[in-house]
Write a structure and sequence with these properties.
About 40% of the residues lie in helices and about 10% in strands. It comes from Thalassorhabdomicrobium marinisediminis.
């Protein structure tokens, strides 16, 4: 389950994937009142095909589950946003682990480039809500806005995680652990080894042990695609300067 809607308690947590919210979701899911509607599972929706219900965007919620969107608008809703480039790298590592049963560091340069090309084609074809197997790449803005209207009132940057927890504790009345889940890199290697990989990127068929040093995210067509495709997400992230507040992209 990802989104947590607790109408009787007056709050909702909208889970933007790969933005550091997994530990928050896990601690709040006992209060969910949707009967597990947004549990991670595949579901076919007209016009969208197969989606992951655990990562449904708000435009999709507005179209098919308008009663839930009304709850999100009515209560104190909150969520986390992340730097788009960092999130893309993290999503790529999650995608290979979950849907391809491979660690990202097992891909050669050639394989990785082919993988990224597949990902870009898939998400570009479904910008409003990515297909189920690419759910972690959906645009972040789609978890907070519908037609440029901000639905989630309080948006926090991942960098402001401590402030986010303090706010959520005030809203929910629940003490939360500050330990974050899913902080490992794609291959579980040390940052020093990742640095050595980066310094040797010129070598043919080099494998990268840490998504944070992927050469594709530094420069070139993939980086340009990420910057363009997630331009609104970049604005959302940079405009969320004061904890809990973001201006509309």
């Amino acid at each position: 389950m990802t989104h947590v809607l607790a109408q009787s308690r007056g709050f909702a947590f909208i889970h933007n994937p790969k933005a550091g919210g997994s530990s928050v979701r896990k601690q709040l899911m006992r209060y969910d009142e949707t009967g597990g509607k947004y549990k991670a599972r595949t579901h076919v929706l007209p016009g969208y095909g197969t989606v992951d219900m655990g990562h449904v965007t708000l435009p999709v919620m507005a179209r098919f589950f308008s009663e839930d969107l009304a709850i999100v608008q009515k209560v104190k809703a909150f969520g986390l946003v992340r730097d788009p480039v960092q999130r893309f790298g993290s999503a790529l590592a999650e995608h290979t682990r979950r849907f391809r049963d491979r660690a990202l560091d097992s891909y050669s340069d050639t394989e990785r480039k082919g993988l990224i090309d597949e990902v870009l084609r898939a998400i570009e074809a479904r910008p409003e809500c990515a297909p189920a197997e690419y759910c972690h790449f959906s645009k972040q803005k789609a978890f907070f806005y519908v037609d440029d209207q901000q639905i989630v009132a309080d948006i926090f940057r991942l960098e402001d995680y401590t402030a986010a927890l303090q706010h959520i504790e005030q809203v929910t009345g629940k003490r939360l652990s500050s330990r974050r889940r899913n902080q490992s890199t794609s291959g579980g290697r040390s940052s020093r080894r990742g640095l050595r990989r980066l310094l040797n990127l010129a070598k043919p068929e080099q494998k990268v042990s840490d998504w944070r040093v992927l050469p594709e995210l530094t420069e070139g067509p993939v980086r340009r695609f990420v910057d363009d495709y997630y331009a609104d997400d970049r604005h959302l992230h940079t405009s969320t300067a004061a904890p809990g507040h973001a201006s509309a992209p």
